[in-house]
Amino acid sequence: MAETEQIDSLWLGADIVTMRDGHYNLIADGVLAVDQGKLIWVGPRSECPAFSAREQHQFSGGIITPGLVDCHTHLVFGGDRSQEFEQRLNGVSYAEIAAQGGGILSTVRATRAASQQELVASARWRLDRLLAEGVTTVEIKSGYGLDEASELTMLRAIRELAETVPADVQATCLAAHGFPPEFKDNPQGWIDIICQRLLPQVKAEGLADAVDAFCEHLAFSPEQVRTVFDAAKALGMPVKLHAEQLSALGGAALAASYGALSADHLEYATAADAQAMAQHGTVAVLLPGAFYLLRETQRPPVTLFREHGVAMALASDANPGTSPALSLRLMLNMGCTLFGLTPEEALAGVTLWGAKALGLQHSHGSLEAGKVANFVHWPLARPAELVYWLGGELPCQVIYRGEAQ
């Protein structure tokens, strides 16, 4: 390395929480060297090479973490379900709400009725709340259109949204979220459309980075998921799965057998699921927001995941029905208080392992040379404070691709 290598910027004056290997791996009084949107050197100030930086940014203490990764959201949808939320709290049952035309089908109707521009605008408002708290990478799923045209509109809205925000946005096709009302008596008809028409078009237009499905007794059976995954794999598309949220169907092990990026929810996951996920490198994505709002009591088997070495990510699951969450940082606290994660595990879950759940662990999720320069400065004394404080936006400075936001 030349002694006076010219670079874009140096960032110094804070402790660096690198999250290398999923641990704090803290560097006291650290320096980040950035060029062309990437980290080219990370280490203690005392060992920093003699860079010639066009810009130098000096912090007055605090900590720097990787940009946060929200690896499971449903941010694009029409309408909201706050009225149903109030009804439930006033004692109206799910069955009664559904009979009134509520539930997921109300979101489907509102999403189908919305234009792509309306979907982008409403999602942008929700996404901005996450970005303000240090999120620099986010995954967004389709799944509220449940017809060919509306699913494509949702995915195009996600791609359009990606062009307007200082964040890396991944799109996931979740057409296998539920069965459209038009196919309630012919579920195989919807599966055929997904596999034979929708996924090939999604692939041809580059509209999605992965394919997801909901494996549950009230959604898709393991056999139906296999059909969708076979179609996705034939197109060269990575897969992931909503699994074991309400019952044990072996969906997590099924997903792992396909080399899935992640299996998500997992309250009812078994030792066999954990073993399969560990064998195939499938990430366990834990979603405490839905667990909390649905008042569940069956916790995901964190101890099993630890024993088998399964990486655990945390995400907001931001959606209109079961997790209207607009704070990934709140999920850090919930992951610890509700699921028993340590603060270090929780932070790894929204950095390196969140990135791995998107297949981005080699470029995102930790502060190491060669990775993208997405990071956040927090005026805090230690990483556990990110988990400790409940509510409110902690002041922070977000740097995306080497540029202060």
UniProtKB/TrEMBL annotation:
Cofactors (names): Zn(2+); Fe(3+)
Write the record's keywords in alphabetical order, separated by commas.
Answer: Cytoplasm, Histidine metabolism, Hydrolase, Iron, Metal-binding, Zinc
Subcellular localization, per the record?
A: Cytoplasm
Q: What Gene3D superfamilies does this protein's entry cite?
A: Metal-dependent hydrolases, Urease, subunit C, domain 1
Keyword Hydrolase carried by entry: yes
Give the E.C. number(s): 3.5.2.7
Binding positions for Fe(3+)? H72, H74, H242, D317
Instruction: Give all residue intervals belonging to the Amidohydrolase-related domain.
Output: 63-379
Catalytic reaction(s) noted: 4-imidazolone-5-propanoate + H2O = N-formimidoyl-L-glutamate
**Binding positions for N-formimidoyl-L-glutamate per the UniProt entry:** Y144, N319, G321
Q: Identify the residues that bind Zn(2+).
A: H72, H74, H242, D317
Q: In which pathway does it act?
A: Amino-acid degradation; L-histidine degradation into L-glutamate; N-formimidoyl-L-glutamate from L-histidine: step 3/3
Q: What class of enzyme is it?
A: hydrolase
Give the cofactor note: Binds 1 zinc or iron ion per subunit.
Top-rank taxon of the source lineage equals: Bacteria
Pfam families, sorted: Amidohydro_1
Binding, 4-imidazolone-5-propanoate:
R81, Y144, H177, Q245, T322
Answer whether the UniProt record assigns the keyword Zinc to this protein: yes
Q: What does this protein do?
A: Catalyzes the hydrolytic cleavage of the carbon-nitrogen bond in imidazolone-5-propanoate to yield N-formimidoyl-L-glutamate. It is the third step in the universal histidine degradation pathway.
Name the protein family.
Belongs to the metallo-dependent hydrolases superfamily. HutI family.
Cross-referenced HAMAP family, in alphabetical order?
HutI (MF_00372)
Matching entries from NCBIfam families are given as: hutI
* Protein name, per record: Imidazolonepropionase
Q: Which organism is it from?
A: Pantoea endophytica
Its gene name is hutI
